[in-house]
Amino acid sequence: MKEYDHKKIEKKWQNFWDKNGTFTAKNTSKKPKYFNLIEFPYPSGAGMHVGHIRSNTAMDIISRKRRMEGYNVLYPIGWDAFGLPTENYAIKTGIHPIKVTKQNTDTFRRQLKALGFSFDWSREINTTDPKYYKWTQWIFLQLFKKGLAYKTKTEINWCPSCKIGLANEEVVAGKCERCGGPTEKREKEQWMLAITKYAERLDKDLDTVDYLEKIKIQQRNWIGKSEGAEIDFKMFSARQDLAEEVKVFTTRPDTIFGATYLVLAPDHNLVQELRSKISNWAEVEKYISLVKTKDDIERTGENKEKTGVELKGVHAINPANKKEIPVWIADYVLASYGTGSIMAVPADDTRDREFAEKFNLPIISEYKKAGFTDFGKKVTKFKLRDWVFSRQRYWGEPIPLIHCDTCGFVPVPEKDLPVILPKVVKYKPTDNGESPLADIKSWVNVKCPKCKGNAKRETDTMPNWAGSSWYFLRYTDPKNNKELASKKVLKYWMSSKSGGVDWYNGGMEHTTLHLLYSRFWHKFLYDIGVVPTSEPYMKRTSHGMILAAQGEKMSKSKGNVVNPDDLVKTYGADTLRLYEMFMGPFDQSVSWNSDSMIGPRRFLEKVWRVGMKALTRADKNSTASLQKILHKTIKKVTEDIEGMHFNTAISSMMILVTEMENEEAISIDDFKKFLKILSPFAPHVIEELWSICKEKKSISYSVWPLWDSNLIKDDEIKIVIQVNGKVRSEMMILPTLNEESIKGQALKDENVIKHLGGQDPKRVIYVKGRLVNIVV
RNA sequence: GCCCGGAUGGCGGAAUUGGUAUACGCGCACGACUUAAAAUCGUGUCUCGUAAGGGAUGUGGGUUCGACUCCCACUCCGGGCACCA
């Protein structure tokens, strides 16, 4: 009898799959296609996180099951390798990000291969590869040509001591993460993408896709569609009439009779325009600069107290009742949403009420009695803002534009793509906040493609959302250098009956931005005829985070990171995969506990023993009770995988295996059926047992077993008997027995008679196949 | 402050979606095998009670014959955030 030696077995089958191209997807096939997707990892220096394994194993199980169900499965992998951590590492060490990326992807590749994921490695992609980002740049140019990319001033976080623009992530409670000094806001010209032009479709088309409901809610909340009205309020000053009007947006135009004051955002344009009419300008100006120093957390967090200043000397007229009302500025109104101004209805809105109470502004409680006629014009507003698309950073795709004083911004001709990221000496942004690329004169200075005059390259780079907004498309045709992917191949993988990526799983943290950005790009590509569907992903699910033992996030600084390499060595990849699927419900966060890995390991050892027993004994038939439980388990595992209830699927297989070990007879055929349903979870050890069963081909393309519903049927069912909702007895009945007989039999039960204590039942409730409840 | 999740034995969790609460796994205790240990197997393991019974699914209410599941109010934990008019 052979021993279960995970090291030998795992190595053997990983080599076998590699050599035979077992998981290489074909671009043409008679089989129906199935495109499974995980979020491609960012290859961080820390190596693979156990959280990656959770998502990858889940989608691997689904991919392997689909192959056995007769699909041509594409389960690809790549690297989302541009981004801050690698760049910051380069700034610190001076090692080129290309080199760092290579090291990190090598580590990740080795780790992923050691877990036996059925990726099609021949399609591996890397967002930092010029052959890849050529097409990221190409998509940007199409957006630019359609007027969806534009430049405007926005606020960025600036660290005055590091002289560097900071990402939100690098500002911790108003302090620079690098030096600890205070940060400030600075105006900067940035490239923007007009995602708001797609807001309506991004909202509406959610009806056409199969996302988890909570994910749809997140998307909808982020897009934030609301119907309301824009109403003009006439303004006048004490000294002279004003031609000015303030446009306010409200979702409740019917409350207009209760509007007792207006509030403008402190940075509303009109405030500056009214300067000469405002009698307390000094006070107003002071307030505006105070608001500028606050960051969003301060404005929203501890500082719940409402603040604001009245614009003295100006008033507005409520168009509904012609009353004169005061105008205030306050930081609870944001310039970036709606019209940047509101009509305050303190009787209806809590924020307005708090504000009114603090500043003694009138509250009209009977506003609803006044007859309402429509004011203003109906409009639809979205919370969604345009996407700030440029970064003054090194490690990103160069924005392929050239600025010419005569012609303005001119696209780099498509034949000159990609615009290669040049080598620099220093990766740190320049002191004036420009990208390090701005210092390379030989790269920056070029001729204008249009007028051939002197011109300069755009030195900003793209955010790392760019490469991840379309990567799944590249998997279909990763080596194409004429198009981002050929139409024919895209049509095959992206538009069969189901359309798009069939199943996409990823973290909840990406269900707003990444998901929205990639849907936006996809819709744009659809509009210009590049892709065949208007939605990229047909189905989207998400997994819960894996936390450290005490329920904290795993992090280097806390020293609680679990290294998968050690676990693979000790327990084996199959055990690790099984443990991660067994540890808790897939969509919820769970705490890691390496001690619990022994359970799945023992299970696999038991599977091995049962296999050896089945082989030596060579029983013709399994016992009837074993057949029954086997078919019940096939049904449960088949259904649980589809619902991502991997933990209960494994638990049912554990019960089955215990049963197999105890039963006298197991036929080889039945044992093989069991191997098939376990194979997606623990592929290495199962391939080994499959081959020991004298099977010549990989189990990966065997046929997924069906359950026989006749074998599952129960001859007798258990009925629980309750008295007043409390369990008092139970009985076995034939499933064919009618309701009256069941109730009659229940009433004759001796425990029931005891608990009735001679009282007559008021009601007898029968729940089919479950219980009888006798109420007295 | 807002949004989305979550809370069940010593621990991770299960519960046919309103119908036997605690499946499966870990841990622990005892037993078998062994010179012994490991491994494996078996038995037990929410709580109070000798028992009959009673009480438990974060807290307090409600609906129902019946609530872990539905409704209302709250507490704590995790994630996200742009005070969204």
The stretches of 5 or more residues where confidence is low (pLDDT under 50) are none
Number of helices: 25
The fraction of residues in strands falls at: 15-25%
By DSSP, the count of extended strands is: 30
Assign the structural class, choosing from mainly alpha, mainly beta, alpha/beta, alpha+beta, or little secondary structure. alpha/beta
Cα-based radius of gyration, to the nearest Å: 33 Å
Please tell me what the overall shape is: globular
Biggest pleated sheet: 7 strands, mixed
Residues in helices, as a percent range: 25-40%
Average residue pLDDT: 88
The termini sit apart by 63 Å
Give an overview of the whole structure.
The chain is of the alpha/beta class and 776 residues long. It has 25 helices and 30 strands. It is globular, with a radius of gyration of 33 Å. The mean pLDDT is 88. The structure holds one RNA strand of 85 nucleotides.
Topology:
Elements: H1 6-20, E1 33-38, H2 50-68, E2 72-74, E3 78-79, H3 84-93, H4 97-113, E4 125-126, H5 130-145, E5 149-159, E6 164-166, E7 171-172, E8 175-176, E9 184-193, H6 199-204, E10 210-211, H7 213-223, E11 226-237, E12 241-250, E13 261-264, H8 269-273, H9 281-293, H10 296-300, E14 309-317, E15 324-329, E16 341-344, H11 350-359, E17 377-381, E18 387-388, E19 401-404, E20 408-411, H12 441-444, E21 445-447, E22 454-457, H13 471-475, H14 487-494, E23 503-507, H15 513-527, E24 539-543, E25 546-547, H16 564-571, H17 573-582, E26 590-591, H18 598-617, H19 624-642, H20 646-662, H21 668-678, H22 683-692, H23 709-712, E27 717-723, E28 726-733, H24 739-747, H25 750-756, E29 763-767, E30 771-775
Parallel strand pairs: 1-2, 1-23, 3-4, 10-24, 13-15, 23-24, 25-26, 27-30
Antiparallel strand pairs: 5-6, 5-9, 7-8, 9-18, 11-12, 11-14, 11-17, 13-16, 14-15, 19-20, 19-22, 21-22, 27-28, 29-30
Helix pairs in contact: 1-22, 16-17, 17-18, 18-20, 19-20, 19-21, 21-22
The chain binds one RNA strand of 85 nucleotides through helix 7, strand 12, helix 10, strand 16 and strand 26.
